[in-house]
Amino acid sequence: MTVQAVSLKVGACFRFKTAVRRITRIEKSEIHWEYADRKRRAGRLGGVQWLEYFRSEAIEEVPDPIMQSERITLRTGETVPVLNESVSIVLETNAPRRWAFVDLESGEVWSHDGNRFEPIKGTGTHAVKNAISCPKELETELIEAFKAGGRVAAVKLHRTRTGSNLPDAVAAIKSLGL
User: Fold this and answer.
1) Hey, which residues does 109 pair with through a beta bridge?
2) What is the DSSP letter of 41?
């Protein structure tokens, strides 16, 4: 069977004899594709095929399997798919407490002590929030504002730049040693 040429576009999925393939890029007469389930076959995650061969071997256009899977809404407002199988995410470090892990669905914040994950609660979550919302460039500006106009000026600058509430802004200024 040959699929219509107009249906060949980036992101479209097609059923083949072996698996569903998603088009990732189209260049001149070549189709770059990946397996829609993102599983390796013969050691590969995808490939490149001449457009006419792709059209002739494709059985039919199908909905994207990832888009049809269960989805969750994050606190950022973004919806993301839930995979059918769990995945292992590995981070190698000599200082595990340096890292904070945020569940963007529930808002929970976690740290790792080298052996297990532990929830960060209370003031610890505020410290993580301040670390994210107060990068080095802002720290420099806050110090300059403090020197020029005092604590009130630094707190106002922090609240303006990060949208933080008063207690969080004061805590951030205190964490800078000001």
Assistant:
1) 102, 120
2) B
Residues 6+ apart with CB under 8 A from 42: none
Burial of residue 94 (number of CB atoms within 10 Å: 0-12, 13-18, 19+): exposed
CA–CA–CA angle 117, 106, 167 (5° rounding): 90
Are the beta carbons of 19 and 36 closer than 8 angstroms? Answer: yes
In this predicted model, what pLDDT tens digit does every residue of 51-100 receive, in sequence order? Answer: 999 999 999 999 877 666 677 888 878 878 777 777 888 889 999 988 98
The packing angle between helices 166-175 and 123-133, to 10°, is 80
20, 35 contact by CB (below 8 A): yes
Residue 101 is encoded by which pair of tokens? 């892990």
- Is the CB of residue 3 less than 8 Å from the CB of residue 61? yes
Q: Judge whether residue 32 has pLDDT over 90.
A: yes
